[in-house]
Amino acid sequence: MPSNLAIDDQLLEEALRIGGHRTKKATVTEALEEYIQRRKQAAILELFGTIDVDPDYDYKAERRRP
What we know:
Helix content: 55-70%
Structural class: mainly alpha
Largest sheet: none
Number of domains: 1
Distance between the termini: 46 Å
Radius of gyration: 21 Å
Order of helices and strands: HHH
């Protein structure tokens, strides 16, 4: 899916330099992957404290199951 995007040249050049990529495409692709990963991690962090834990759950016994 080809796209024309107006990306800030200074930001893209700095990202190229810092990321060590050879192409703008590789730089933008990695930036998008990192963005998605961070958003998913933030969503997981929001779950902390909202899920009830079973105090009788024995995780060590589960490791021994065949």
